[in-house]
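Internal tracking record. Fields below are filled automatically when a chain is submitted to the structure queue. Please do not edit lines marked as system-generated. If the sequence contains nonstandard residues, flag them in the REMARKS field before resubmitting.
Queue: standard
Priority: normal
Entity type: single polypeptide chain
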Amino acid sequence: MKTPFSSVLPVAVGVLVLGAGAIAVSCASGSDTVKAVTNTVVETVTAPVETTANILTGTAAFGDYTTDAPGVKRKITPADLPKPYSTESANNGPKWAAKPAGALPKVPAGFVASEFAGGLDNPRYVTTAPNGDTFIVESNPGRVKVLRDTNNDGKSDETITFAEGFTRPFGLAFYPANDPNPKYVYVANTGSVVRYAYKNGDSKATGTAEMIVDNIPTGNEQVGGGGHWTRDIAFSRDNKTMFVSVGSRSNVSDGPSEDRRAVILSFTPDGKNESIYASGIRNPVGIAIEPATGKLWTSVNERDQLGDNLVPDYVTSVKQGGFYGWPWYYMGANQDPRHDGKKPELKDTVIVPDVLIQPHSASLGLAFYNGKQFPKDYTGNIFAAEHGSWNRTKRTGYKVVRVPVKNGVASGYYEDFMTGFVNDDGNVWGRPVAVAVAKDGALLVTDDNSGTVWRVAYKK
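SYSTEM-GENERATED OUTPUT FOLLOWS
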């Protein structure tokens, strides 16, 4: 599994270092001002999507929910990371709040957020069928639903239960991938992968579930805590490989309970020929195939309890046979002090992820934008859902971010796209989980706290 150290970084064309105090940060939406902390650095870089961009770097890039706003850009590098235990390990889980009357998420200028569907029970995963149906996975009740907007008003007006009786389901994928007429729909339970025969327009499963993989590692994980239970599915562009993501059982153990965990597994679509595609990935919640190159990408929860600003979550392309450090190392050759002196032979093989996300953000589902509704600069970019922190003094996450990507290469920074789920008092009314592109090119976002699927459309 040893893979040479690698990193993808943008090309800097100029750096402006400002003194201590507050600064004004230009946002893509042209509307928000961000208060930065001391030792602030604003870096102008050549990005693959935008000619120049004002990007928060250094200490300011870590920030928290009070500095989030649509259009705010952040770039975190391994050089920015503090030493372990620079701060105490916080226990600051979200304090729930009811959604304020009339509240909507904040999105960039030119975009409009609205409720596509409400009243759902723990909606986690979302994807779009080739015919335009929206498939929602409700993990806690173990159910898959089909949502339809029959009058094209941007709001679901028909809800049908496709199938139920699953065990903590999460990922769902159609096979063959990118086929206008798929033959199967696959669903990932926490301990297995099953599939149903499918034809376009099916609103209810036909026949019984066919077991494809019956031994995905699992323990006593439960929805909402107790280990990493989500399993996502993606198929390679040539439809010869099925990828299944499996998170760790623990925060940072290297014991036998972690066998075949913290990995992305690969199989043939019939569930045979298992191998470990990549390892050392603590919790690769979301996986997706990049359309331009066919590369596999993942959105990852990194480890906790090393302090507020360790360890960054990340979004990255995944190298076959690659090792990403967990549990012994992180972000390259940085050794976890809880495993001091272990596995020295792996130190120089750890791959640095493409894009580092604010620590403890809980990066979950991701999707590549392949629609035609948004501005051209969004084409091929990643949207990733940040579910929100518990192990940080000041909250991070609780938003959807955009990761610019061009020709399979990430810029190295990311941009807040959908924010506003945290009230001024720090209480939380919404938690994004997964994202998908609707048939009309709008973005759909599941929110398991308010039981909502949000829709973001671009208004020309």
